[in-house]
Amino acid sequence: MYKILTLNNISPKGLSRFPLDHYEVSSEMREPDAVVVRSFKMHDMALADTVKAIGRAGAGVNNIPVEAMTAQGVVVFNAPGANANAVKELVLAGILLAARHICAAWDYTRGLAGTDAELNKQVEEGKKKFAGFELPGRTLGVLGLGAIGVKVANAARALGMNVLGYDPHMTVDRAWQLDSGVQQAAGIDDLLARSDMVTFHVPLNDATRHLIRADRLRIMKPGAVLLNFAREGIVDEAAVVEALNQGHLRTYVCDFPSNTLQGHPKVIALPHLGASTQEAEENCAIMVADQIRDYLENGNIRHSVNFPDMSLPRAGSSRLTVINSNRPDMVGQISHVLGQNSINIVHMVNESRNGVAYNLIDVEGNLDGEAARGIAAIDGVLKVRVL
Ligand SMILES: NC(=O)c1ccc[n+]([C@@H]2O[C@H](COP(=O)([O-])OP(=O)(O)OC[C@H]3O[C@@H](n4cnc5c(N)ncnc54)[C@H](O)[C@@H]3O)[C@@H](O)[C@H]2O)c1
Ligand SMILES: O=C(O)CC[C@@H](O)C(=O)O
């Protein structure tokens, strides 16, 4: 039986991909083989050394200690693109909320009282405070053209906006998906300086922490709107509040409430709703459940953020998977132990990433016992499994 620990509410459709005759799935599991998580912060969590994989039912992995997991030979998966449409739709809503002052206007109407005639009078008097702007001809800057950024850029083009994009690591696949009318900015500062509204869709990491800070906010056009549906730590919130107070920024729309932002009249903060649709929750959970299953049962790796992707059809009588530190002569030592135990290699693939290497080895021969123990004893080997 494989054991799966869930750390957040995970879509039952996704969890049903773990067949009950081979899997136990629970939010309370002492020695799990794998963990399925959404936003639960795992950095301070003690993890049993039975854990072989962590599946993030979403995109961002900043709640997972990925580096430490890599050093322990734990494969971390995510669900690239599985919630991108949900986030895109909320970003579009955010653009419209800001452009038309919808939240403030709604608050205004909810506070009205009197007869219908009195309400009508107050409506006609009050509405001039909430006059907004239309989107065609306005420029949206999209920083980060990955799964979400490309969808947002294309949707904004369809709404008649000029779109400026910037992503120094954009993939060829994403470039193919991008509307040809999206203009390339020369860099972050160029994008900020030329946009009426800026949205960013980059991961939170050391390179992007406080990417949007006071000096960058000053570059933005007076009256610009900033949208953050990526992560709280990407903006310096104190600097954003200062820019709002000075009237330099018109509105900050985000998915990450905090005490610094709470109650600010120019902030629209949503409770981390980007991926909260039935469709996205199912897509993410199904994707990571399938990836974890294939890894636990076959050693195949798809969509890992810390290990090389590697999938092979099964061959031979059994399969050996070995995770080792990426240093010279590891493959030689592994195949030497197999040879000593009269085990013939049918198929072997080795790839490395982030200082670790992964080996998928299909063999003919008896792998239990001596051979597996011999490989596990090689200095630098982190994990050995016989499947
Ligand atoms: N609000 C939510 O609920 C929600 C939902 C999904 C994702 N997210 C956040 O959005 C982020 C992006 O998600 P995605 O699915 O588009 O991921 P993705 O990996 O498909 O795209 C991220 C893009 O950012 C680019 N990038 C990285 N550093 C950059 C930099 N310094 N400047 C410009 N571009 C840079 C990468 O090249 C990549 O193309 C996630 O990491 C997550 O933090 C939030
Ligand atoms: O699971 C969620 O609700 C949020 C997920 C989102 O932040 C992500 O990075 O995919």
Automatic annotation (TrEMBL):
Question: Main EC class of this protein?
Answer: oxidoreductase
Q: Report a single Gene Ontology molecular function.
A: NAD binding
Matching PROSITE patterns: ACT (PS51671), D_2_HYDROXYACID_DH_1 (PS00065)
- Keyword tRNA processing: yes or no? no
Short name of any one Pfam family annotated for the protein: 2-Hacid_dh_C
Query: Cross-referenced SUPFAM superfamilies, in alphabetical order?
Result: ACT-like, Formate/glycerate dehydrogenase catalytic domain-like, NAD(P)-binding Rossmann-fold domains
Its UniProt pathway annotation is: Amino-acid biosynthesis; L-serine biosynthesis; L-serine from 3-phospho-D-glycerate: step 1/3
Alphabetically list the UniProt keywords: NAD, Oxidoreductase
Q: Which InterPro entries match?
A: ACT-like_dom_sf, ACT_dom, D-isomer_2_OHA_DH_cat_dom, D-isomer_DH_CS1, D-isomer_DH_NAD-bd, NAD(P)-bd_dom_sf
Reply yes or no: does the keyword Electron transport apply: no
Coiled-coil regions in this chain? none
ACT domain mapped to chain residues: 319-387
What EC number(s) are associated with this protein in UniProt?
A: 1.1.1.399, 1.1.1.95
Give the catalysed reaction(s), semicolon-separated. (2R)-3-phosphoglycerate + NAD(+) = 3-phosphooxypyruvate + NADH + H(+); (R)-2-hydroxyglutarate + NAD(+) = 2-oxoglutarate + NADH + H(+)
Q: Which PANTHER family match?
A: FORMATE DEHYDROGENASE 1, HYDROXYPYRUVATE REDUCTASE
Q: Give the family from UniProt.
A: Belongs to the D-isomer specific 2-hydroxyacid dehydrogenase family.
Q: What job does this protein perform?
A: Catalyzes the reversible oxidation of 3-phospho-D-glycerate to 3-phosphonooxypyruvate, the first step of the phosphorylated L-serine biosynthesis pathway. Also catalyzes the reversible oxidation of 2-hydroxyglutarate to 2-oxoglutarate.
UniProt protein name: D-3-phosphoglycerate dehydrogenase
Q: Which organism is it from?
A: Ectothiorhodosinus mongolicus
